[in-house]
Amino acid sequence: MDIEIELLPESERKDLPSSSNLSFGKHFSDHMFLMGYKADTGWHNARIVPYGNFSLDPASACLHYGQAIFEGLKAYRGKDDKIRLFRAVENMDRLNHSAWRMCMPQVDKDELLQAIKTLIQIEKRWVPGAKGTSLYARPFMIATEAFLGVRPAKEYLLSVILSPVGAYYVEGFNPVKIFVTDKYVRAVSGGVGEAKTAGNYAASLMASEKAKELGFTQVLWLDAAERRYVEEVGTMNIFFFLEDAIVTPELSGSILPGITRDSVLRLARGWGLKVEERPITINEVLEKAKNKALKECFGTGTAAVISPVGALYYKGENYSVNGGKTGDLAQRFFDEITGLQYGEREDAYGWMDII
Ligand SMILES: *Cc1c(COP(=O)(O)O)cnc(C)c1O
Prior knowledge:
single chain, D-amino Acid Aminotransferase, Chain A, domain 1, 6-stranded mixed barrel, 7 helices
């Protein structure tokens, strides 16, 4: 891929936000990557240009019929000052899977990854150095063909923007309180739950707003058909430490296949721990929470890495998990994964990619 590069003059570049003042997705770097697609010519016009507004026809298909997908990955600055990506190839594969599901075009994953690395290289001053901070990369693809009608568009735009981020949760690495909703669902079997597509997040807003109003950090989603099986927590995958096993719902089509989820599973197996990917009912979880057989519960995702759950609220009852404290296992996964990401632990699985 030939990437045309147009750099902003030094004098017009932004001041960096102070690294103590980073939240999530608030600041954006000076440049972005863009590439167009037309059905008859394929991908073309790959370029890195100053960050700025798009010009879109009001009839652009993404604005009406939701052909829009995204990814999220982070670049980490280690103590050795090297910048690393974590399992970025998996993000490229998942982008292509989401594209396939939404009838959008495939991208060459090696070329896109190379483009992301080039962009991060140009923007390296934006990779913060403080512990727990990183530069979040948001690749996304939207349908830009101007027409009204329900069919796959013939034109697309792929872009990558970069945002320096601090810790995801305001509470920091502290257990969160979760509202189990049996009223709303995130995704249905046979639907698009396993695609990182924009509409899934719009669909989730109502439930999470209601949970927040009631003082909870996030929603735990149950399956759409029976409202019995646990699916995910907010925009994270979910894990339980039940008796002697690490249990997570199996990928069923309605669950987003998280890369952090897969990393936790692989690490756990590598450590010789008992791991189960299986359907898990909310009743089993709550029963076991009552008799202390539920030892830990945590969410996994790129944004938070590991987010310990301290309490589950279901049908008017509160179930405390591990006395509301962060468990040893959650801590161990967090330490291992962040240790790898910041280049402080041995990369036995070859997950890290130095830019
Ligand atoms: C992105 C996402 C996850 C986590 O995926 P990671 O690859 O671990 O970041 C989990 N659930 C949903 C709904 C997501 O959008």
